[in-house]
Amino acid sequence: MIFTNLKKHSQYKSEVLNEIEDAFQYNEENSFAIDFHQLIKDSNLENCHLLLNDNRELIAHIGVRPVTLHYNDANINVLLLGGIFTKKEFQGQGQFKKLYEYICKLYKDKYSMIILWSDKNDFYQKLGFRQFGLTSVIGEKTVTEEEIIKRGYLKDNIANYSDSQLSQLNELYNQSYKNTISIKRTLNDWRDIKQISSMKLFRNKDNNEYLFFEKGQDLKGIIHEVSFSSNKKELKKFKPLQLLNPSTLDEDSFFIHLAWGKIINEDIFSKFIHKLSKGSIEIKRDELKIETRPYQIDQNEILTILFGPGKAQEIGHLLPSIYITGADSI
């Protein structure tokens, strides 16, 4: 077996993209390379990991996007996984697990946890992943451009934005998600977002609010990032549309889980939680201390205990929630 990456073997890139789009049943009009530009861009190819057999045939791929989650002055490095597949002729042989375990060993000294999005519940549970975090859905009605325009927002072309305009969006993003643990974005991150042409930007008439709508095949008919996440007056304009948000609007809102997660470096993760909670929460192996009171825990369940679903009642006031928008998810 050969463990390598697309930076060293870029000749596999077309095959990888074809396999991803086949695995996720992509329509002809959509492109994984566009929808998930941050993952498959040239500068991230060293993080696009391949498993080849001794004949140098492609067996599997796991894409990794390293990011930083932050809240105030607390930061933690995490890995977002995407573009995952094992070629059909090699499935059921444990090949994915080999590549996954290789990646864990490669990154675990600097990265605390892995986050991914999938509907393969049983498969990822066996690997120790758990559904964690909460995302509020404001309504159930599929969004259209006409519905957004009716609410006073006009479509804009982010592809034409200057760095100065992107920096303005970043200020709005930081303000909107300041009460949640969110992905820290740099100007380069916004330049990447600018390349996702399948994601539509809308601005209000005063140009002081924005929203992102859809992302190719991934988020059809959904608003997944807004600059007014805590502005209930503005949010009410979008009821009963499918708008994803860190918090609920009213009793008609409902929660879905944020993602699948697994801790790969307990020390880094524990220090982050200790800092976030201002020393009120300590994690040591199978013990969780909340304001000095000890609880026995299963390490595989810690993310759920801290961030939900079913967040421990004693933790509610000690930790902010996590929110990752569709612009960053892979």
TrEMBL record:
Q: What is this protein called?
A: GNAT family N-acetyltransferase
Boundaries of each N-acetyltransferase domain copy?
A: 1-155
Q: Which Pfam families match?
A: Acetyltransf_9 (PF13527)
Recorded hits in InterPro entries, A to Z, give: Acyl_CoA_acyltransferase, GNAT_dom
Organism annotation? Halobacteriovorax vibrionivorans
